[in-house]
Amino acid sequence: MKGLWFTELQTPVVAFSCRVRQTLHWERTPYQELAVLDTEPFGRMLTLDGVIQTTVGDEFVYHEMITWVALSTHPRPRRVLIIGGGDGGALREVLKHPEVENATLVEIDRRVTEVCRQYLPEIASAFDDPRATVLFEDGIVHVQEHPAAYDVIIIDSTDPVGPAEGLFSADFYRNVYQALREEGLFVAQTESPFFNRELLARIYRDVSGVFPVCRVYLASVPTYPGGLWTFTVGSKRFDPAAVEPRMPQGVTTRYYNPAVHRAAFALPNFVRELIGS
Ligand code: SAM
């Protein structure tokens, strides 16, 4: 293989590689090792601790699917919280919704946002929106301190290691329940159904123990391990798999639409078995 290559060890026995034109940025922040690479197949790419977070080439799939399923399920998503998501992609999508009055982004690592604003401006495009509130603090503490504050909570976190570990726990889901208003719902990225089977099964069990409605849905993200990615919803009232998805007029998306919303909840048998539903 000629030239410079980036390789992510997705599991101890599976690797993903792509050719790199240039390393644009590298630093060690107080929380993690942060890099921005210019890759041939996907364009600019953000990595944290050697793990791909987002790329200009395929970010739309993940960012639209982690936001619009919940936004189209809640009839009045006025106050939205994003935990993690320091690249700004989820914030950009949330603020496309005309009924959102305020979107609070709680990112633990200030440098992720600063570097994304510099190198990934098409993803980090909504930070200056007057409806955005950006806080650099721990999302776990934030939900504990904000009861009944949000209609929709989006957990756009790194993998369950380091500062993100607590974002995948039953205690955290209980605090998310408290932080939601009466008809609120949350969505979290919940990793690969191939490589994180036990984690997904545990999350489904934990969320089902806290919320009356729990659903898993899928999207195809080429740069994430296995390509097929899961999201888990916990909802106090509205069932995202049963509602007629409501997209505001004039909003444009590249992956998400109401038909994709409905189809995303059709789970292959191996995923059904995994979550026991
Ligand atoms: N789309 C990405 C993925 O699934 O690979 C996640 C993107 S976003 C960059 C993840 C962010 O979560 C990181 O910037 C990280 O600093 C942040 N994060 C991790 N733990 C956190 C916590 N406890 N509170 C707030 N943010 C956290």
Tally of helical runs: 8
The mean pLDDT is 97
Give the CA-CA distance, first to last residue.
Answer: 44 Å
Strand content: 25-35%
How does the overall form come out from the CA principal axes? globular
The counted number of beta strands is: 12
Biggest sheet: strand arrangement: 8-7-6-9-10-12-11
What structural class do the secondary elements suggest?
alpha/beta
N-to-C order of helices and strands: EEEEEHEHEHEHEHEHEEHH
What ligand species are in this complex?
A: S-adenosylmethionine
Overview of the molecule:
- It is built from 8 helices and 12 strands.
- With 277 residues, it is of the alpha/beta class.
- It has a 7-stranded mixed β-sheet with strand order 8-7-6-9-10-12-11. Strands 1-2-3-4-5 form a 5-stranded antiparallel β-sheet.
- A hairpin with a 3-residue loop joins strand 3 (33-39) and strand 4 (43-48).
- The protein is globular.
- The chain starts with a strand and ends with a helix.
- The mean pLDDT is 97.
- S-adenosylmethionine (SAM) is lined by residues 31, 48, 53-54, 62, 83-87, 106-109, 112, 138-140, 156-158, 163-164, 167, 189.
Brief summary:
This protein is an alpha/beta fold. The chain has helices at residues 59-71, 89-94, 110-119, 139-144, 170-179, 197-210, 258-264, 269-275; strands at residues 4-11, 14-28, 33-39, 43-48, 51-55, 79-84, 102-106, 132-135, 150-156, 180-189, 213-220, 228-235. The protein is built from 8 helices and 12 strands.
